[in-house]
Design goal:
With 445 residues, this protein is α+β, with helices and mostly antiparallel strands. It has helices at residues 3-54, 91-100, 133-180, 201-249, 255-284, 299-313, 339-355, 411-421; strands at 73-79, 102-107, 110-119, 122-131, 295-298, 318-325, 334-337, 361-368, 372-379, 425-431, 435-443.
């Protein structure tokens, strides 16, 4: 039997036991109350008769102060030397009344209450009898109501169990089944998330798990790209260095030939160093960011630093900053992030804009919405062909129209990883020979 079914049966069993005990308690309490209440009515009438006897009234008058009970009868039985001469009242009632002073007796719907009374050396048994036809009716009705309540409660419990199963257990089982299908070979799969159930715990669990899968996929893809591409990208300069060295050492050379060979080796070594550094940066940004230190960062200050650094490296870069859309509240310019990585990401995108626009003017604008800081970098350069747009985030991929420009195809994938680490979004729109617009959305901290 499945765990869920066992749990449901245990809960239903406990509920039925509790309800049954409660039902028995209510039934007994109500039944006892019916007895006690009716005997109190009889006792009130016996006390009135005793009061009349105390007032020297020899005959029983009609009890006008109280309503007459169904088939109500009054009895006064003289007792002499513990003997009596009546067969109207049951013998058991008379004997118990003499011994106990008061006695309650019932036979089906007939109820009798008697008291032992003594006055002027004369003893009597005074009793009042009446029928209680409502007792059996009330008890039967109560029993039917309680049984119906138990049946309704069990059905309600089963309905609630099914509701819990459909809203909690079944979605959880679906998550387990979907998660079991996800492996390192298909990390692109995601759990189903309902947009109209944002506050649903199961939906939040799926959303959180999808976020973890995003980070894992980024890490796996980065490592996969690093392994598959590093050998290719690093092999070229290494082959050149080894080939140049072997060629020079194959026979004696002139000083000029040695210098030229060393220059070629130095060039390839520097090229190798740049690629290695870029690869390490790219691999580093493939993790979930927990190893990085995240602080409150003023994004406008980062942009100004990027602009100054790029123009120091290349004085031909023409970067125009537009701060006309800045929010009035400076706190809306702060984000939770790593300043060095953000500087690197924006610097890569901005330097690409300057490079591929042949050092033409590049616009850098900053704005803010209620939830996001928006950075827009726009150039009027060579643009990206439509056929290449889908591959721009692949490491080492370069558009077909960038052959005459120096680069390794690592800058944009690196920037995307960094923006993704900050829970942001990178949007690229481009037309060949018209220009490129890059929009970066970062959540306000």
């Amino acid at each position: 039997m499945k765990t869920f079914n066992k749990t449901v049966l245990i809960i239903i069993g406990i509920f039925i036991l509790y309800t049954s005990l409660l039902t028995v308690y209510i039934y007994c309490s109500f039944s006892n109350y019916e007895f006690v209440d009716f005997y109190k009515r009889l006792e009130a009438r016996v006390n009135i008769i005793i009061s009349e006897k105390n007032n020297n009234k020899d005959h029983i008058s009609l009890i006008t102060s109280l309503d007459s009970l169904p088939n109500q009868k009054e009895y006064i039985v003289p007792i002499k030397n513990n003997s009596y001469s009546t067969t109207i009242l049951p013998k058991k009632l008379i004997e118990n009344t003499i011994n106990q002073g008061e006695y309650e007796y019932n036979d089906k719907d007939l109820f009798i209450l008697s008291k032992f009374y003594k006055r002027d050396n004369q003893t009597y048994i005074i009793a009042v009898s009446a029928n209680n036809p409502y007792y059996s009716i009330h008890i039967t009705y109560l029993r039917n109501v309680l049984i119906s309540s138990i049946i309704f409660s069990v059905l309600l419990m089963i309905l609630v169990s099914q509701l819990v199963y459909r809203t909690l257990i079944k979605p959880a089982k679906k998550i387990i089944e979907d998660v079991n299908q996800i492996s390192s070979e298909n990390l692109h799969l995601r759990l189903e998330v309902h947009q109209n159930k944002e506050k649903d715990p199961i939906n939040e669990l799926s959303h959180t798990f999808n976020g973890m899968l995003d980070r894992l996929e980024t890490a796996f893809e980065t490592q996969k790209n690093f392994i598959s591409n590093a050998s290719h990208e690093l092999n070229t300069p290494l082959t050149s260095i080894i080939g140049e060295a072997e060629l020079v050492l194959s026979k004696e050379r002139t000083i000029n030939e040695y210098e030229k060979a060393l220059q070629n080796i130095l060039y390839e070594a520097e090229n190798l160093g740049k690629k290695t550094k870029a690869l390490l940066f790219l691999a580093k940004t493939g993790y979930n960011g927990k190893t990085q230190k995240f602080d409150n960062v003023r994004i406008d200050e980062v942009l100004l630093n990027v602009k100054d650094n790029l123009q120091k490296i290349n004085s031909d870069y023409k970067i125009k900053i537009d701060f006309s859309m800045l929010p009035e509240n400076p706190q809306m310019l702060r984000i939770k992030g790593n300043e060095q990585l953000l500087h690197l990401a924006i610097s890569n995108i901005l330097s690409n804009a300057c490079k591929y626009s042949n050092n033409g003017e590049v616009s850098l604008a900053l704005a803010a919405s209620n939830n996001f800081i928006i950075i827009i970098i726009k150039d009027k350069g060579i643009g990206i062909p439509d056929s290449d747009l889908q591959y721009i985030y692949d490491p080492y991929y370069r558009a077909s129209n960038t052959v005459s420009f120096e680069g390794y195809g690592i800058g944009l994938p690196l920037s995307k990883n960094i923006i993704k680490m900050h829970n942001g979004e990178l949007i690229v729109k481009s037309k060949e020979n018209i220009g490129t617009t890059v929009q970066i959305n970062l959540p306000i901290g």
